[in-house]
Design a protein that fits this description.
mainly alpha; 2 helices; 90% helix; 0% strand; rod-shaped
Length: 107
């Protein structure tokens, strides 16, 4: 049974494969001396790692902001629920008290 790869993972892997193919195409079809190929590959790999690290930082920042927003919304909702629950309890206590007074007046 085949296991499908996640869509995001598939996109990242295909992007990496395309970039590797592009590097080899540039090396193969240009007249770069053999001594310069090593520095070209090294600089390209460093550039690629820099892009990946910047992407990770950007995604982390967006995830952190999203997490903070959800925490704030959740705490506000909890506060609203807490206040609403106390209002319901207060109304219930007032209703219970007033029913007791009405019962005593009816007797």
């Amino acid at each position: 049974m085949k296991k499908k790869m996640n869509k995001k993972t598939r996109n990242v892997v295909s992007g990496i494969m395309v970039s590797i193919a592009a590097i080899f195409a540039v090396i193969s079809f240009t007249d770069i001396p053999a001594s310069d190929v090593q520095s070209f590959i090294l600089s390209t790999v460093i550039f690629f790692i820099g892009i990946v690290l910047l992407a990770l930082v950007a995604v982390s920042i967006f995830k952190l902001l999203s997490w903070l927003k959800n925490c704030l919304i959740k705490s506000e909702a909890d506060d609203d629920h807490f206040h609403a629950q106390h209002q319901i309890e207060d109304l219930t206590e007032e209703t219970d008290h007033s029913e007791g007074v009405n019962d005593s007046n009816q007797k």
